[in-house]
Amino acid sequence: MSKIILVTGGAGHVGSHVIEELAKDQDNKIISLDNYFNGNQANHIEGVEYRTGHTKDIDKLIPETPDIVYHLGEYARISPSITEPQKVYDMNTLGTFAVVEFCHQRQVGKLVYAASSTKFASDGQERFANPYSFTKANNVDLINCYGRWYNLPYAICYFYNAFGPRENGIGKYATLIAKFEQSYLNNEPLTVVKPGTQKRNFTYVKDLAHGMILAGEKGIGDGYTLSNQKEYSVLEIAQAFGGQIEMIEGQPGRTESGNAPDKARTELGWETTLDIMDYIKNFISSHPKK
Ligand SMILES: NC(=O)c1ccc[n+]([C@@H]2O[C@H](COP(=O)([O-])OP(=O)(O)OC[C@H]3O[C@@H](n4cnc5c(N)ncnc54)[C@H](O)[C@@H]3O)[C@@H](O)[C@H]2O)c1
After folding, report:
1. Can you give the pLDDT at residue 257?
2. For the chain, which ranges sit under pLDDT 50?
3. Which of 42, 138, 157, 199 lies most in the core, judged by the most C-beta atoms within 10 Å?
4. How many CB atoms within 10 Å of residue 29?
5. Residue range 4-286, CATH number
6. pLDDT tens per residue, range 64-100
7. CB 19, CB 32: distance < 8 Å
8. Minimal CA–CA distance to 91: which of 106, 72, 70?
9. d(Cα 37, Cα 54) in Å, to the nearest integer?
């Protein structure tokens, strides 16, 4: 049956993969709402309608009533967020409140949210560590409350560090694996923030997208953690690229990921299909050093 699907942040890294998978069903009418703060037209998928705008204007920009909303359109980077709390508040707090209210007022069939796993780290204290984690955890609370107050149908997915095609390795909002790829290609040392023992569950972006769509189809409520079960230290990841490593001072962030609920595996039968170490091996063999 034909569905109207809204994806916020559809021109971003994970959002573009959500759209790519949804677009395989040609009956779906897919609309992306993105303000291009960190989105890129190069991430556009054929057949999808791209609207430019901030989520806080969603009511005006989306006259349609979608069957489902996948909400990924937020300020999405931890470290730089400490230097620009105003932007984070604007995009994540004002923007997401408008999205949640839109879903409630329009009686959207389901809101699926891309939450951050940082809220589970450091025994739950990591949610206060920076403006990004703070707003992401508050938005989880907000959506859970709308479920409780107004019976809003929703599913909350928790993402861990995404890697894979269309990841951005350049500029202020670049992410780790793509930055390492850039350094490798430029024959520069890979920079690792000391001590390097900080661990992350790097998760393949297409697996995140698939998990989010499964949660959209069958998920109910909070707790859909989408995480590779293996964690690696940032230093181990850098070493996997071979070559020189430079240890630098900086904010290493949380030491590890923390325990999170596992409804994605137990209820949805979701699993990862590609480990980061195999991805790096493939990358190196397809970009051999001369
Ligand atoms: N990538 C990860 O490892 C990771 C981990 C945990 C959670 N998440 C969450 O997943 C979502 C997607 O992350 P990503 O890595 O693809 O980030 P991204 O920056 O590549 O994508 C986010 C997109 O949303 C757009 N956007 C931001 N604020 C907006 C607003 N207010 N209105 C409209 N568009 C807006 C940006 O322009 C961008 O295209 C984010 O909500 C992020 O917090 C990502």
Report:
1. 67
2. none
3. 157
4. 16
5. 3.40.50.720
6. 999 999 999 999 999 999 999 999 999 999 999 999 9
7. yes
8. 72
9. 9
The length of the chain, given as a count of residues? 290
What is the number of the ligand 1 atom nearest to the C-alpha of 16?
16
Establish whether residue 164 lines the binding site of ligand 1, counting it when its CB lies within 6 angstroms of any ligand atom. Answer: no
Tally Cβ neighbours within 10 Å of residue 251.
Answer: 11
User: How far, in Å, CA of 214 to CA of 241, rounded?
Assistant: 33
Any ligand 1 atom below 6 A from CB of 159: yes
Statement: the pTM of the whole predicted model exceeds 0.90: yes
The ranges assigned to domains in the chain are: 4-286
For residue 72, the CA-to-ligand 1 centroid distance in Å is 5
pLDDT digit string, tens, across residues 227-246: 999 999 999 999 999 989 99
With beta carbons less than 8 A apart as the criterion, state whether 14 and 205 touch.
yes
Task: Tell me the residue type at 117.
Answer: S
Positions of E strands within the chain: 4-8, 29-34, 49-52, 68-71, 110-116, 154-159, 162-163, 190-193, 199-200, 203-204, 221-226, 232-233, 245-248
Q: Residue of the nearest CA to atom 35 in ligand 1? A: 73
Rounded distance from Cα 8 to ligand 1 centre (Å): 8
pLDDT the model gives residue 246: 95
Would you call 16 exposed, middle or buried from its count of C-beta atoms within 10 A (0-12, 13-18, 19+)?
buried
Gap from CA of 15 to ligand 1 centroid (Å): 7
Residues whose CB is less than 8 angstroms from the CB of residue 70 and which lie 6 or more positions away in sequence, other chains included = 5, 6, 7, 8, 15, 18, 112, 114, 212, 213, 216
Q: Which whole-number Å values give the CA distances from 97 to 58, 68, 161, in the listed order?
A: 10, 17, 25
What residues pair up with 191 in beta bridges, in sequence order? 246
Q: How far is the CA of 289 from the centre of ligand 1 (A)?
A: 33
Task: Please work out whether the CB of residue 39 comes within 6 Å of at least one atom of ligand 1.
Answer: yes
